[in-house]
Amino acid sequence: MSDHELRVSKIRDGTVLDHLPGGSALNVLAMLGIDGSEGTGVSVAMNVPSDRLGTKDVVKVEERELSQAEVDVLSLIAPRATVNIVREYEVREKKQAERPESVAGVLACPNSSCITNADEPVESRFDVLDDGVRCGYCEEIIREGIADHLDVA
Amino acid sequence: MRQDHLVAAGQLSRADVERLLDRAAEFDAALDGGGDLPASYPEKLLALCFYEPSTRTKMSFEAAMKRLGGDVVDMGGVDASSVKKGESLADTVRVIEGYADGLVLRHPREGAAKMAAEFVDAPVINAGDGAGHHPSQTLLDLYTIREAAGLDDLTIGIIGDLKYGRTVHSLATALTEFDARMHFVSPESLRLPRSVRFDLHEAGAQVREHTELDEVLPELDVLYVTRIQRERFPDEDEYRKVAGEFQIDSETLDAAADDLSVMHPLPRVDEIAPEIDDTEHADYFEQAHNGVPVRMALLDRLFQNHE
Q1: Which of A54, B5, B23, B77 is most buried (CB neighbours < 10 A)?
Q2: What is the pLDDT along chain B (307 residues), one digit of tens a residue?
């Protein structure tokens, strides 16, 4: 039995996000728009030992099954994430995060002169590069610290 | 991106550029010779939406539209418009679309024209978006380069403010479609932005960066000079030091080829000494003059594509 399972009990129905980089769990939740206001259970284990990552975070979201598109967006900050869909305490489906071609409404452009930062009725959009992301409007490239630019309320 | 908008030079293939420049040459010949224009648009109205000051771009679009037989409606300065009341760009362009058949937009924010093009059906031309792009300037630059030196087997030096210079960003992107060796000369603090270097790299362009013009001047066919803007520097002394290093005068050009073409999108401050104006090197006024036939060809193409 691994360390995180000792800390967080099994869930009946929902999604288990594993192999998230240590310390990224709150950003992952923010990216998914999960803030607890839904009233369903959310468990977070941070910086637990991992053979593969050194330390990792694990998030269990009850009563919500993440779509492949949602999982793919996570690849920007958690490229090695594994996602298990759980029904009746059993893992029924496994998903791997794959890099999407673009993401919309997830990141805020760091370029303060970008039109998406001008109170216009437009959603930010970033093309995903091999090594970073690029604003679909001003073309600014972000390579490091993508999680610092999450555009989540 | 639809082909009845022009928001970035990267939209244009080599064939697109060549067709546009050929068409511009037809308009140019008709304007010079007084012959019939290859096309006219007497029923068209073009909206000029300039959120930043402009002389050449705005007047040459106005001249181009009027030479085509049409007319313009001008939003006027930002202070005199609803923008002052806080209207969004998205709303403004949707309103103006109801008054005109096409929009020319200059705006201080990068990506403004791209966003505007998503909100309207009429053709949108990016006439400068912050430090982003200025593709119609690029077309007249290419037209001038083609006349002066040809677009293939070209060695071009681009000097000045490469970081914020939108004409530079668009020109460099467009030149990747041609067999051009590009030398970028600037102070370290004003080198090309990462996004443009990325595009040039992805396109496999032949690019070198320098901090001194002397290193490359003798091999250049074209020297494209841009203004170093005072407001980019933290203090006046630093600005003067850098601006002085990048000033072109007769002495500078002693090391250049006899047929070097010197270009500048204008306005210049003191990057090119007036003594160059009367030499064979000076092509910048011709370059500005080319704005009208090139923009006539661009409007012709966008109106055609929109039908």
Answers
A1: B5
A2: 457 999 999 999 999 999 999 999 999 999 999 889 999 999 999 999 999 989 999 999 999 999 999 999 999 887 777 777 789 999 999 999 999 999 999 999 999 999 999 999 999 999 999 999 999 999 999 999 999 999 999 999 999 999 999 999 999 999 999 999 999 999 988 999 999 999 999 999 999 999 999 999 999 999 999 998 777 777 888 888 788 778 999 999 999 999 999 999 999 988 999 999 999 999 999 999 999 999 999 999 999 999 8
Distance from CA of B168 to the nearest CA of A (A): 15
Catalytic (active site) residue B57: yes
pTM for the model stands at 0.91
Query: Is the CB of residue B227 less than 8 Å away from at least one CB of chain A?
Result: no
Q: How far apart are CA B125 and CA B5, in angstroms?
A: 6
Superfamily of domain B136-288 in the CATH hierarchy: Aspartate/ornithine carbamoyltransferase (3.40.50.1370)
Q: Does B83 touch chain A (CB under 8 A)?
A: no
CATH among 3.20.20.150, 3.40.50.300, 3.30.70.140, 1.10.1060.10 for A3-96: 3.30.70.140
SS (H, E, C) B219-239: HCCEEEECCCCHHHCCCHHHH
A39 Rama class: left (phi>0) / alpha (psi -120 to 50) / beta: left
Q: Which of B23, B106, B133, B146 is catalytic?
A: B106
ipTM over cut 0.90: yes
Those residues whose C-beta lies under 8 Å from the C-beta of residue A148, and which sit 6 or more positions away, are none
